[in-house]
Amino acid sequence: MKALFCTDGSEISFFAIDNIQSYCENLEVDILCVIDWHFFPMYTSYPEQDYINTYEELANNVLNLAASTIQEKGYKVCELKKAWGSASEEILKHTKKTKYDLIILGSHGKKGIKNWLGSVSRKVVNQAKEPIFISKESTLNKKVLLTADGSEGSKFAIKKALSLLNLTGKEINIITVMEDINNLPLEITSNKEWFNDYLKKRNCFAQNVLRETHATLKEHNLEAHNEFSLIGSPSTAIINTIEKENIDLVVLGSRSKDRISEFLLGSTSKRVLENVKSSVLIISPPEEENLNLQNEILDEN
């Protein structure tokens, strides 16, 4: 499996490679370090060539450290890459040049400003087509949370995650979130017959989602330890469950901006990414016309 590891040399970025080791046994890794020009103070008279030499040496040290760390974990290091410019743009540019199965990076979270990984991870999530594994800290890597909403995109994300990760021996949890009736128009909920039928169908749908996810796990010789069928805001329910259950990795589907989903919206992934300490694996579905075909391929594999 081919992966791109993006690092700014920070400890947090190395947490990502530490954590992924618990889920992926065989990786061929390209390492990318971007020297971000935006951090150069334009009002200073610091000689440009000296700046280039200093930061190029720093980038080389980061790449060499990353390479030795990755090799110690038994992974194969393929290419060491340096780039100048916007970190997010360079990462996305490299993913277009080379086909990767996984992007690995750290995130400083919502308030991280020391280095580039906080804002970069969010920008890459918004635009990358590849699955993205993001870590903020070292975790125990024992408990995994699969998010499910019954859509083809959600099914694809779970199947893709199971094809990428080795979850044998992990405590697997499943969560689905149903619409809060308080968000429905009063005119609709006042119709008791319609309302009772809605509640019945909603609960039935949630049970079917959980049943299908259990079946998918069984196809991979895995089983879920717990399931959560909750009501309310998807992002809030996911975040609270992660905190309460001490989840180490959450698997999320993500939608592009021009698509609408009842559950796994891009905004949900963004809020979860910004507000949890666990690692996050975000998987975007292929183009709509290829989604069903890709799900069939994953079923066959």
Describe it for me?
This protein is an alpha/beta fold and 301 residues long. The chain folds into 2 domains: 2-135, HUPs (Rossmann fold, 3-Layer(aba) Sandwich); 143-300, HUPs (Rossmann fold, 3-Layer(aba) Sandwich). It is built from 10 helices and 10 strands. It has helices spanning 11-20, 48-72, 87-97, 117-127, 152-164, 186-189, 192-219, 234-245, 266-275, 288-300, and strands spanning 2-6, 28-35, 76-84, 102-106, 132-135, 143-147, 171-178, 224-231, 249-253, 279-283. A 10-stranded mixed sheet has the order 3-2-1-4-5-10-9-6-7-8, sandwiched between helices. Helix 3 crosses helix 4, helix 5 packs across helix 10 (288-300) and helix 8 packs parallel to helix 9. It is elongated. The model is unreliable at 110-116 and 256-265 (pLDDT under 50).
Q: What is the CATH topology assignment of the largest domain? A: Rossmann fold
Instruction: List the domain count as a whole number.
Output: 2
Strand tally, please?
10
Mean pLDDT: 85
